[in-house]
Write a structure and sequence with these properties.
This protein has helices at residues 39-58, 61-77, 79-90, 94-115, 151-164, 179-190, 205-214, 227-237, 262-274, 294-307, 326-341, 378-381, 397-404, 420-429, 462-468; strands at residues 5-7, 10-12, 19-24, 29-35, 123-126, 130-138, 141-145, 168-172, 198-200, 220-224, 243-247, 252-256, 284-290, 345-348, 368-371, 388-394, 409-410, 412-416, 434-437, 452-453, 456-457, 470-478. By secondary structure, the protein is an alpha/beta fold. It has two domains: 5-248 and 455-478, Aldehyde Dehydrogenase, Chain A, domain 1; 252-444, Aldehyde Dehydrogenase, Chain A, domain 2 (3-Layer(aba) Sandwich). It binds NADPH dihydro-nicotinamide-adenine-dinucleotide phosphate. The site of NADPH dihydro-nicotinamide-adenine-dinucleotide phosphate has 33 residues, from helix 7 and helix 8.
């Protein structure tokens, strides 16, 4: 696949004429190239977005909504092509891209196309004196930067509210997984999105990503990715007084109490640890289990993990595909070595998965379960972002909370118990932006989404996203 930038409604190569290889991680082979865009491409994209802003922002919400709905139809019409492209580009199973990634991309756009029709702002009366009303105005040209783990899913999660609210966008997908963002720009063009409203520029984070963040005309940046990158973006953007939404890393705890429904807890915890090869910021990678339940949970959990198959992403029998890149595979492997050095025992996995034929060079790793580690060691506090999970027993609710909160991250948490009072106590005290009780990844797009501590700043989802992508202006009118 030869990928091009999408600027001002046209498809073009980068001005510097340079390209990067795009690799199929399941085969370990280069299968296409993508633009290695630079700051000059960002300037072009910005100029196009700036020129498109007046008409797009003044367009009635119903018309913007109608165009966004045509994009939804375009995604649905090309669902299978997008699912195949996402699977090839990222190594994730085709069953997952079909059932989650692409469906959710369409849902994101539909959700904000509908939400904008109901978005309203407050008014505050001072009886007999004045009325205040708040205008919620689009910001202007905004930047959207997304990661490789849920490529189209997270790309559209940012772009949809930005466009719905009347902004124009310069967007950059991860250079590791650019394929569906490219197909998406074709869909936007076919759907009649006016030129310049959305501009998609491909390339390295340190070049084109940095150019977006540093551009003086781009007034807000919505970023999802690693915590270190988020910190770098904040260092550049904060002194420029840009609005920033940072959705960053996670190291999510999963607390299993003895009174839980064991079967459901095991089944969902396995899914919550290894879906997408553990490369979801919401995966529960630290499982803390009440001491009295520990042996039963561990044995049932390991038994289920051993049944997970890894291999050809297009084979529906395989729960796991390849991890996203060679560099990432080696990073995850280094953490398995670290876990052993820190005294952990590998209960299953721990090695590359051997897959034959055309996949013999692919980046496959067995699902790995480790026990015997301190809750405070590096393996248990640093983000691994792969198919690696640790099991640790706890004695009391207080100890469970202490373990859960013992990382610099605070994105999501899972809790398994039948006790409503405990649910309320733990949910209050756990340091996380999202708490799932007796479930995982049950998403309602109206709810606030984001993390605390080093997992980010700001919230996405529902009105939060539309508020982020608008500026509030208060107008105070004194009565005559
Ligand atoms: P990175 O931080 O490496 O990259 C994210 C995006 O930022 C990519 O498009 C990347 O481009 C770009 N980028 C890199 N450096 C810069 C820079 N200096 N300025 C601007 N943009 C830059 O994250 P990953 O892609 O590795 O994604 C994995 C991370 O994302 C994990 O930490 C995960 O937890 C987190 N994540 C968080 C979520 C949340 O909602 N909180 C959801 C999903 C993932 P390029 O790829 O070209 O380097």
């Amino acid at each position: 696949m030869q990928i091009q930038n999408y600027i001002n409604g046209r498809f073009s190569d980068p001005l510097n004429g340079q390209f990067l290889d795009n690799t199929d991680p399941a085969r370990g082979k280069v299968y296409g190239r993508i633009p290695a865009s630079g700051a000059e491409d960002c300037d072009l994209a910005y100029e196009a977005a700036k020129a498109a802003f007046p008409a797009w922002s003044m367009m009635p919400a119903t018309e913007r909504s109608a165009i966004l709905m045509r994009i939804v139809e375009g995604i649905e019409a090309r669902h299978e092509e997008l699912a195949q492209a996402e699977s090839t580009d990222s190594g994730k199973p085709l069953w997952l891209t079909r059932s989650v990634d692409i469906m959710r991309a369409a849902a994101n756009i539909r959700f904000f196309a509908e939400a904008i029709l109901h978005f309203s702002a407050e008014s505050h009366a001072i009886p007999g004196q004045a009325i205040n009303y708040t205008l919620r105005q689009p910001i202007g040209v905004v930047g959207c930067i997304s990661p490789w783990n849920l490529p189209l899913y997270l790309f559209t999660w940012k772009i949809a509210p930005a466009l719905a609210a009347g902004n124009t966008v310069v967007a950059k997908p991860s250079e590791i997984t650019p394929a569906t963002a490219y197909l998406f720009s074709q869909i936007c063009s076919e759907a009649g999105l006016p030129p310049g409203v959305l501009n998609v520029v491909h390339g390295l984070g340190g070049n084109i990503g940095k150019a977006i963040v540093s551009h003086p005309g781009i007034k807000a940046v919505s970023f999802t990715g690693g915590t270190a990158t988020g910190a770098e973006i904040a260092r550049i953007a904060a002194p420029m007084f840009k609005k920033l939404s940072l959705e960053l890393g996670g190291k999510n705890p999963n607390l299993v109490f003895a009174d839980c429904d064991l079967e459901k807890a095991v089944e969902t915890s396995v899914r919550g640890a290894f879906t997408n090869q553990g490369q979801i910021c919401l995966c529960g990678s630290r499982i803390f289990i009440e001491e009295s339940l520990y042996p039963r949970f561990r044995d049932a959990f390991v038994e289920k993990v051993k049944q997970l198959k890894t291999g050809d992403p297009s084979d529906p029998d395989n729960f796991m595909g390849a991890v996203v890149s060679k560099a990432h595979l080696e990073k995850v492997e280094s953490y398995i070595r670290l876990a052993r050095e820190e005294g952990g025992t590998v209960l299953c996995g721990g090695e590359r998965a051997v897959v034959g034929g055309e996949f013999s060079e692919g980046y496959f790793l067995q699902p790995t379960v480790i026990e015997g580690l301190s809750a405070y060691c590096r393996t248990n506090t640093e983000e691994i972002f792969g198919p690696v999970v640790t099991l640790t027993p706890f004695k009391t609710e207080d100890e469970a909370l202490e373990f859960a909160n013992a990382t610099p991250y605070g994105l999501a948490a899972m809790l398994w118990t039948q006790d409503v009072s405990r649910t309320q106590r733990v949910a209050e005290k756990i340091q996380a932006g999202i708490v799932w009780v007796n479930c995982w990844m049950l998403r309602d797009l109206r709810t606030p989404f984001g993390g605390v501590k080093q997992s980010g700043v700001g919230r996405e989802g529902g009105w939060e996203a539309l508020r982020f992508f608008t500026e509030a202006k208060n107008v105070c009118i004194k009565y005559a």
